[in-house]
Amino acid sequence: MAQTVSRTAMCDEARAGGDPPIAGAPTSVTAFLGGAAQGPTHEAVRVGGVEEFHRMFGDLHVRHPMGYAVRDFFANGGTTAVIARLSAASAGAGGALDPAAYAGDRSARTGKYLLDGLDPVNVVCVLGNARDETVPAAVYADLLAYCVERRAFLIVDPPVEWRRDELLADPAAHVRALGLTGQAARNAAVFFPRILSADPQRGGQVESFPPCGAVAGTMARTDAARGVWKAAAGADAGLVGTAGLAEDLTDDQNAVLNRVGVNPLRNLPAVGPAVWGAGTLARADQAADAYEYVPVRRTALFLERSLSRGLESVVFEPNDERLWAQIRRDVGAFLDSLFRQGAFQGRTAADAYFVTCDRKTTTQDDIDRGLVTVVVGFAPLRPAEFVVLRLQQRAGRTPP
To answer: Are 188 and 180 within 8 A, CB to CB?
Structure first.
């Protein structure tokens, strides 16, 4: 019979041993890929504020929307950004970056691979190299595959060509044109419309900008205040520093877009512009998916990253019953700490999560291959059905 650790036992272990041995990983470190006026192109740089960004990559520049997105990120509560400035040598006619500039080369560590070795990267924003440039669908598709590999979440800006009336006439077709489908779509969300804000480089004139930076900052603010399991949407998700929205949406229009995975930005009374949707692009497939909600997917990514990090030490432990019991205790204590913070649905811990690691999850073949398998289930706040994660770690290896 599969062994699932007792909630009472794991709580006693947590209290007796102090803090749980597994710590929560960061959730809102946001990478920005695009053009900038200056700065290194051979490495990605971590910055902790807009002033630090300006020192490294120059002041706001009317040609480079990445600087404005970083500004919006920090204005809305972001604390850590990773800047990947793509080489201007890859700019084509009109200054637009070639898709190859984003794709890059892993061996040369260019393009998206500038982010290799930087851990964690939780959220990814992609900017063009001109104010009104739409990032090509092929670039987003390529970046989404990389995000899945890195356990990161991709924020997709609406194409510049999207207009409210045309979008509402056939929203499904517009979403299909993004080319972000299949299981990978769980790791992406698109927000509409573009935001309006003052441009100090144009005498304070109000201009439209991609919303990704403001949305990522709002996610970071919500993570810090309520946890990654809380949707960054609603009256608490106002967009700071935003003068308005390029298009206004009614309640009925909002509902139409939500059904196909387009997250509306709304003008709310007494709040102003705010995020008013939290669906992933998996919703666009019109098939039931446990990860159609952004906070559910981001919570799962957070758990996978936290548990993978926390269980790294098992690599040199004998892969036997003693190790499995230790894993059940450690993972259980971590999940219980999250349950007490309100991360999961359920009146009791038994309703909220489970962790299984035993001879049924880790077969003799797994042991022979040096693998231990842990199965974790949790009941997200919405929907309440269990989401099950399966993680494998190396174990039973002889240290050098």
So the answer is: yes
